[in-house]
Amino acid sequence: MAGGTLTDPVDPGRDDWHRTVPGWHLAFATLAVLTAGLLFTGDAGPPAADRPVALLVLVLLCGWYGATGARALHRTRSRVGVVYLAGAVPLSAALFAAAPSGALMSCMLYPHIWALLPLRRAIAVTVASVASMAAVMIVRSDAYGQEPPSVILVAAVALVAALVLGVWITRIIEQSRQRARLVEELAATRTELAEVSRQAGALAERERLAREIHDTLAQGFTSVLLLLEAAKAGTCERDQAARGHLDQARRTAVDNLAEARALVAALPPPQLFDASLPDALGGLIERFEAETAIEAAFMVTGTPRRLTPNEEVMLLRVTQEALANVRKHASGAGRLEGVLTYGSGGVTLRISDDGQGFDPGDAGTGFGIGGMRERVTEVGGSLSVGPARPSGTLVQVELPS
């Protein structure tokens, strides 16, 4: 504690020490009441002429404690504690000078000194306080009836008692703070262990899924590609429509094989390897138009900026799912529009079509909206799916900054 600073406040109630502070408030109030009573009690009180001064000093001391001391005890080693003691020490000496019964308030002053100051400063302030009270007793020997030698003896005993009490209080506070730090360290370690366990579980599950994808989907797409190549080779050169459909099927299989391999390697989607998010989304919509003959447009508003990998993957996946829904469910659709907006408050993605729309009550089956919403929520965004104007469906993702 000797090396402590004045700027390391402790949160109230964080340790055993701070749970005793209300008791300190009660003890201060009790001693103040007793001191006030003794001021007006026969021989124990000061001369009648000194009583108003003593009472005024006591009121000032109580007010100063209420304004600064009570708050200081909740924040040991803080500047407010220094401010409190800078006023409490001279006020206590003045009260003792005005009335011998004012010495009662020193029973709280010394514990406050040791609770609020580092060891070396507490010793210095305690010595100065005891010396000031001894000086008062010598100067006012007529009121206290003590000769200088006896005053020095009493002061020495009081100083030793104050130092012993102070060291005891210091050790209690330090032990309390050490226990609080230990509890915090244990809690932090527990949190770290839980996170490590979670990551280990996630890694194990990802490795399992990677093996499953490699053994099933990736090999299946490879087989599909071989079959498509064989079908194309056996198709008549003049049957351009069939060859075109086979080319589209082949491109789809190639892309999905790349997706499967990216999943196995825990890499981002291949569309984001060498392209920005706007380019990747624009490529998806351009390809959608080529494959469906539905007129499609994509635009970007605002100034594009890099998002986190998880955010970009989420927007890509939502776009893919929205396009798949239009392909499967939006009968009668003749136009699709995608808008990616970069604003000061975040990023917004809108995918809308002019098809027949859908019943929101059936959105839980076959539309992939639950999966989209989970992806969006994981990165702190929000998803809304509803009717577009004048007809069709609107999928909107809002991603705050």
UniProtKB/TrEMBL annotation:
GO molecular function: 4 iron, 4 sulfur cluster binding; phosphorelay sensor kinase activity; protein dimerization activity
Domain Histidine kinase/HSP90-like ATPase: start-end pairs: 310-401
Keyword Transferase applies: yes
One Pfam family named in its UniProt record: HisKA_3
Entry keyword Iron: yes
Compartment list: Cytoplasm
Catalytic class of the enzyme: transferase
InterPro entries the UniProt entry points to: HATPase_C_sf, HATPase_dom, Sensor_HK_TwoCompSys, Sig_transdc_His_kin-like_C, Sig_transdc_His_kin_sub3_dim/P, Sig_transdc_His_kinase_ChrS
Assigned EC number: 2.7.13.3
Cellular component, GO annotation: cytoplasm; membrane
Catalytic activity: ATP + protein L-histidine = ADP + protein N-phospho-L-histidine
Cofactor: [4Fe-4S] cluster
Keywords, in A-Z order: 4Fe-4S, Cytoplasm, Iron, Iron-sulfur, Kinase, Metal-binding, Transferase, Two-component regulatory system
Position of the signal peptide: none
Role of this protein: Member of the two-component regulatory system NreB/NreC involved in the control of dissimilatory nitrate/nitrite reduction in response to oxygen. NreB functions as a direct oxygen sensor histidine kinase which is autophosphorylated, in the absence of oxygen, probably at the conserved histidine residue, and transfers its phosphate group probably to a conserved aspartate residue of NreC. NreB/NreC activates the expression of the nitrate (narGHJI) and nitrite (nir) reductase operons, as well as the putative nitrate transporter gene narT.
Name this protein carries in UniProt: Oxygen sensor histidine kinase NreB
Protein source organism: Nonomuraea phyllanthi
Classification lineage: Bacteria, Bacillati, Actinomycetota, Actinomycetes, Streptosporangiales
